[in-house]
Design brief:
Shape: globular
Largest sheet: 4 strands, parallel
Radius of gyration: 14 Å
Strand order of the largest sheet: 1-2-3-4
Distance between the termini: 34 Å
Number of helices: 4
Structural class: alpha/beta
Strand content: 5-15%
Helix content: 25-40%
Order of helices and strands: EHEHEHEHEE
Length: 137
Amino acid sequence: GLPCLEVLGLEACQLALDDIKQLSRALPRSSLARLDLADNALRSMGLLVIAGSLKSSRLQDLGLERNEIGIGQALTELKAALDKKPLQCLRLSGNRLSSSQESAFIRSLSHPSGSQQFGRSYCPPGCNCFEGRGEVM
């Protein structure tokens, strides 16, 4: 496993579905708290794989920006996983969701106590998930 690695940035790495499957199999054994998968064209199949491993992972922060994710079964599975094990930060911008669809999805999640919604993501007070990304909260 990956016992000491807490942050893994795999943005724009052209990950194949097999890469996502291997990563998902390793998540439960890792100490990863933050995983950035932006710009990997995960689509529905990749999201289904990731969603399936969330409940047994230690992730607190997941970046899924610009992955061609749209409304459908994969997003439903992500919601089910996040309702069982909420994240501190979830980033979904730039996918195949309208602003209203993305906002409705974020609002539908069972938020942890004291969480607040920022920039179509949700974060608890004091969360630094946007540090160093040039994004405004």
